[in-house]
Amino acid sequence: MPMLAITHYPDAILRRKSAPIHHISPAINALVDDMIKTMYASPKTIGLAAPQVGHSVQLIVIDVSAREKKHGLLVLINPALVWGKDEKILREGCLSLPDYTGNVTRYNHVLVRGLDRGGAPFQIETEGIEAICLQHEIDHINGMMFIDRVSSLTTDVFRRKRYGKV
Ligand code: NI
What we know:
The chain is an alpha+beta fold.
């Protein structure tokens, strides 16, 4: 299981709407495993979307356990936000934009639907960091990044030191 190279902004793949997955092929299964490994190997990283590792398909992995006790590892295929409520502003970062963080307004409580890694219909209702992380990763598969959601690029985006790895 190789570690995957992270695609950085402004690579065009990060701005493209990803293709839905219709068949959980061995290649998709291998990609899921490699994305999980890559996520866990990257400090402070609680989610990863396939376009961030060079694959324009609708696949995300998240695990917010390091920040909040929630559902642990989640693999979602073709995920979509069904509804959200209770807006909240939180500082976000992204492996694909490692030198910046931003204050982003998102729903604190969401329902997301998709497929699990076996291809079965799956839905999750959750709150807090996990809800925010799901929205961040779903944005990636729709070609959006957190800088698209800040109120102001001059007052709500902040420079920071690079991640230690990746
Ligand atoms: Ni990101």
